[in-house]
UniProtKB/TrEMBL annotation:
Source species of the chain: Thermocoleostomius sinensis A174
This protein's UniProt keywords: Membrane, Transmembrane, Transmembrane helix
Pfam families: TrkA_N
Protein name per its UniProtKB record: NAD-binding protein
Signal peptide: none
Membrane spanning residue stretches: 258-278, 314-334
RCK N-terminal domain span: 355-474
Length: 584
């Protein structure tokens, strides 16, 4: 079959109508495209140029090559019959152009839009129905933060106005939960059971809990743990110590200013003494007044020099030249000290904690999101950024986080950030090589400090973690792509994860009179559809735990649940009607 084009693929797509179109098959887009195919979704990809990893999909007519902002390409991909469009390009302007063209061709299509600009995404979400903006940085940052806090998270779940870290527990022969009843884990409020994969038989989590099943060797259990805020208040003694250390650091930069100031004062003193000695009629105050005015250029008291002998006038000329040079240097140094970066560096250094703080190297899209996550958890943070004009510096300073402008690969910069006493360091610049070099520099200075490294390449991330023994090497694409795929399959999600190639999602669904779950007990629904109920919101109360299983769903209830992405159609498959999935 020929490669599909804007004209040649109409016959093929006439009998294969894709439900989901993914535009922009870079790292993120192709990962989303692959995950959707893995879950059995009918998906068509569009990319602006052929790439080696796309050859098989191009040959299979599941990927089109062309400008996905153009109407012919979108029509060839089946935009009129598609249910969802995923815009996964890393260019906000291109995604916006594709959004407008797609909505003209299909006004009702759901759009999952990858946008770096959060404020723009929020506005579009409120203005356009069926538009959901997502950010790779925002989706991956919580996992970086959880790793720094000591949680080996595979994802995150937004519940009760908190972001819960999600991790997978593989039950081996040494696991403390081996042989423990699932019902015991179900009862604990600080932990939520998300998904269960038994090793030797198929059984949903609710059935396993109700039947009193014990965890066996090889079982997999996905859980979410309630986050804990880290309160870190410095004592007065620590603050004074920090101030003294900052002054010591400031001392090396203030020395030239002090020396020039001494020279300036000596120049004024010499001129004052000379004028006083040359004329008995000139008082010390008048001589001082004229000397300062002459040297600073302000003028005043000129009669002191006008009535003086010729040699004093020559001395005055020399003092004017020397004074102009000295006062120029003095003003330059003073301006750099007060209005330049020196005072800011002193203030930041004075505020750097001595221990139990978190160092973020690189204040880019991921870095600023990690900063906000850790700050929300009550952690003390220090930022190292090499660009003094970084656009996110004001965000850090607004949060009163000290920022050190310097190269994080250099030992002196890391020592200024007091890496030896840090709780963890996150190297999250956009350059993988720089991240690796920073991490190795830290290991050389403080081998026991946990280091979390950002890597664009998922394969390199796994290898680097094994070879260099870092705490975690994380790829934002790997962390964020499942959220895009889950959103494409069933609305905006509360959380998601991958277990044994199964994509599961957490979301909330509004129970309407036409909903397939309406009038049924949650226990029965959970067993029939392999979902895990998290909690239920009604007009009167919030229900979770054992009581949740016996509740009968009625219109107006909002059920928070997790389920495999392949089962999401059960939420809206009813008498030909499309049921609402509540957005969070």
């Amino acid at each position: 079959m020929n490669e599909p084009t804007s004209n040649g693929s109409a016959n093929f797509l006439s009998y294969m109508k894709p439900r989901i179109i993914v535009c922009g098959l870079g790292r993120t887009g192709y990962k989303v495209y692959s995950l959707l195919k893995l879950q059995g979704a009918t998906v068509i990809g569009i990319n602006d140029r052929p790439l080696p990893h796309l050859e098989a999909d191009i040959a299979a007519n599941t990927v089109l090559i062309g400008d996905f902002c153009s109407a012919p390409i979108l029509l060839a991909a089946g935009i009129r019959d598609a249910q969802t469009l995923v815009l996964a390009s890393n260019n906000d302007a291109v995604n916006l152009a594709a959004l407008t063209q797609a909505r003209v061709l299909n006004p009702h299509i759901r759009i999952i839009n990858r946008l770096f600009n959060d404020s723009l995404g929020d506005r579009l979400d409120h203005i356009l129905p069926g538009h959901f903006s997502m950010s790779v940085a925002a989706l991956s940052a919580p996992v970086f933060a959880f790793a720094a806090l000591g949680n080996r998270a595979i994802g995150q779940l937004r519940l009760f106005n908190q972001t819960w870290p999600i991790r997978e527990e593989y039950i081996d022969e040494d696991h403390p939960w081996l042989g423990r009843k699932l019902s015991e884990l179900w009862e604990e409020r600080s932990r939520m059971l998300i998904y269960y994969l038994p090793a030797y038989m198929q059984m949903d989590l609710v059935s396993a809990v109700l039947s009193g099943r014990h965890l066996e060797y090889g079982d997999r259990l996905i859980i979410a743990t309630q986050p804990r805020n880290h309160s870190a208040r410095r004592t007065v003694r620590q603050q004074m110590l920090n101030l003294l250390v900052g002054l010591r650091y400031f001392q090396q930069h203030i020395r030239p200013t002090i020396l020039v100031t001494i020279v300036l004062l000596l120049t004024i003193l010499i001129a004052t003494v000379t004028y006083t000695a040359a004329s008995a009629h000139v008082s010390v105050i008048d001589a001082l007044y004229f000397s300062v005015g002459m040297i600073t250029g302000a003028g005043g008291g000129e009669e002191v020099a006008e009535m003086a002998p010729a040699d004093i006038k020559v001395f005055t000329v020399l003092m004017m030249l020397v004074g102009a040079a000295v006062i120029g240097i003095f003003y330059a140094l003073l301006n750099d000290l007060i209005l330049g970066t020196r005072f800011q560096e002193f203030w930041n250094t004075a505020r750097v904690p001595h221990r139990n703080h978190y160092i973020i190297c690189g204040l880019g899209g991921v870095g600023v999101q990690v900063l906000q996550q850790l700050h929300a958890n009550g952690c003390e943070i220090v930022v190292i950024e090499h660009d003094p004009n970084n656009r996110f510096l004001n965000v850090a300073r607004a949060l009163k986080v000290p920022v050190i402008i310097g190269d994080a690969k250099v030992a002196t910069t890391l020592q200024t950030a007091r890496v030896g006493g840090a709780a963890a360091l996150l190297s999250v610049t956009s350059d993988d090589v720089i991240n690796l070099e920073i991490a190795l520099s830290v290991k050389g200075l403080a081998p026991r400090i946990p280091v979390i490294v950002r890597s664009q390449d998922p394969q390199f991330a796994n290898l680097a973690q094994q070879v260099f023994d870092f705490e975690a090497v994380l790829s934002p694409v790997e962390l964020a792509a499942p959220s895009f795929a889950a959103a494409a399959l069933g609305g905006r999600v509360l959380g998601n994860g991958m277990t044994a190639d199964i994509l599961w999602v957490a979301l909330s669904t509004l129970i309407t009179p036409a909903h397939p779950f309406c009038g049924k007990r949650i226990q029965d629904v959970a067993i029939d559809t392999d979902l895990v109920p998290l909690y239920l919101e009604t007009k009167r109360q919030t229900t979770h735990g054992w009581n949740l299983l016996e509740v009968e769903l009625t219109p107006g209830d909002v059920l928070y649940l997790t389920m495999p992405a392949t089962h999401l159609e059960q939420l809206w498959r009813t008498q030909g009607a499309t049921l609402p999935v509540q957005m969070s």
